[in-house]
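Tokens in:
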């Protein structure tokens, strides 16, 4: 990523490009560091104008004496070097935040320089810098290497991410989740969806973000639900319900048949009685359209109350019909309405664009996880609980007792047991192969992330919460 600056009084400017572990803050910090190096020693006070709030914050909050804080903070070795150079030259540095892209002449020039830097670097390799803990003389007295590259970023968080990659990959490739992520494990808009979107408004909505699903909001929700668990069974019940709906683990007909195929064979939807009961069917069942209207209304009501509590002057639609419309006007069962995604714990990135249109620009994390929680809860109250009541009635009618559910073995498992021969890989072998595959997939995702940041990774299928919002536009 490119960094650039200019000192108008001295009529000098500079560009360089940093490689690996890209982030917009890192690029800004490198610009600050190189600019401070260039300021002559006889200048005592340096005013630094930047549009990066994150880098000013990073420098101001940095505490160099605490190894724990250093290992937690991003780009600590660049900040350390900035402070060291300023101290050495006895210069007082003032950081002044200016608004980005607001027509301030010099800021725009610096922005342009940074953008052009990548082009210059292709012609002149000496513009490429790969700063790391060693070359920047960090107080951290060790160097971590991975794949023969220095390990950058927040040491603690990145290491956690790295250690959990196989599990994250396992989850991302599981049958319930893989439909939201493409075969390459990338978080991009599927062709099946984009080919159905044909009007300019919805094309803009769909591509307002470089990613398809904002997994970070799903993770935020589950983190807060886990915290609430301690308040008692009603909280932990909701927590397990949310986990189950996201991962297709609710006891719907198809899942019940896996355990008791003789009892629940061809279990039909209890609302329409014309299709097999699966979780996806409950989202598309024609007999449930009224319930979805209700869920939409509740969601809009929730948004109204949370924005007024947070004192946000939002421009909300007066009617639920104009609230979070589907991404295509074409009738199709492939494309759900946004409220249905939310009820499954999935946060489509275009909903964020919708929130911006409603003039909601602050408290985004709170509002997004609130919307998810509200929709999941509404689905549970208005579709799942009535379904369970109908299910109990049906089981009673058919004379299915609790003991029958407990003791009958699924017939397929008996067949499998009788067929076991030495040539079929055992459970251990299967798990080992799965782990190896996950490790390879997770590893390649990490490589992708280190080199240029990947959309799938940034927004969370691997619990990595880097603040790389501007990355795609800056690459
Ligand atoms: Zn149905």
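Residues out:
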């Amino acid at each position: 990523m490119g960094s650039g600056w200019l000192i108008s009084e001295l009529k000098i400017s500079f560009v360089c490009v940093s490689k690996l572990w890209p982030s917009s803050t890192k690029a800004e910090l490198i610009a600050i560091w190189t600019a401070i190096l260039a300021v002559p020693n006889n200048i005592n006070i340096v005013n630094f104008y930047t549009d990066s709030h994150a880098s000013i914050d990073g420098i101001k909050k940095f505490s160099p004496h605490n190894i724990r804080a250093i290992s937690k903070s991003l780009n600590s070795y660049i900040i350390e070097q900035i402070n060291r150079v300023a101290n050495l030259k006895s210069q007082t540095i003032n950081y002044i935040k200016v608004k980005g892209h607001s027509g301030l002449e010099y800021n725009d020039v610096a922005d342009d320089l940074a953008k052009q830097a990548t082009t210059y670097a292709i012609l002149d390799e000496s513009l490429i810098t790969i700063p790391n803990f060693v070359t920047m003389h960090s107080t951290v007295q060790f160097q971590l290497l991975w794949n023969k590259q220095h390990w950058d970023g927040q040491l603690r968080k990145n290491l956690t991410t790295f250690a959990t990659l196989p599990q994250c990959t396992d989850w991302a490739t599981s049958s319930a989740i893989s439909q939201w992520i493409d075969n390459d494990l990338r978080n991009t808009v599927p062709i099946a969806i984009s080919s159905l979107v044909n009007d300019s408004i919805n094309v803009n909505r769909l591509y307002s973000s470089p990613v398809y699903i904002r997994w970070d909001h799903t993770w935020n929700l589950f983190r807060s639900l886990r915290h609430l668990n301690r308040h008692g069974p009603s909280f932990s019940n909701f927590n397990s319900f949310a986990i189950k709906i996201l991962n297709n683990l609710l006891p719907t007909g198809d899942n019940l048949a896996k355990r008791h195929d003789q009892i629940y064979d061809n279990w039909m939807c209890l609302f329409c009685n014309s299709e097999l009961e699966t979780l996806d069917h409950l989202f598309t069942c024609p007999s449930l359209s009224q319930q979805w209207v209700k869920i939409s209304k509740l969601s809009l009501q929730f948004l109204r109350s949370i924005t007024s509590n947070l004192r946000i002057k939002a421009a909300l639609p007066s009617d639920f019909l104009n609230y979070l419309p589907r991404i295509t006007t074409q009738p199709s069962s492939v494309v759900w309405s946004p409220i249905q995604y939310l009820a499954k714990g999935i946060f489509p990135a275009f909903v964020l664009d919708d929130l911006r249109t409603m003039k909601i620009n602050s408290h985004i994390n709170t509002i997004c996880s609130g919307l998810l929680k509200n929709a999941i809860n509404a689905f549970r109250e208005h579709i799942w609980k009535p379904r369970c009541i109908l299910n109990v009635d049906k089981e009673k009618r058919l004379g299915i007792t609790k003991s029958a559910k407990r003791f009958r073995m699924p017939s397929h498992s008996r067949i499998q047991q009788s067929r076991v021969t030495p040539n079929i890989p055992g459970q251990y072998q299967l798990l080992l192969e799965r782990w190896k595959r996950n490790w390879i997939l997770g590893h390649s995702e990490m490589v992708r992330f280190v080199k240029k940041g990947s959309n799938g990774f940034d927004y969370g299928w691997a619990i990595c919460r880097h603040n790389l919002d501007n990355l795609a536009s800056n690459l």
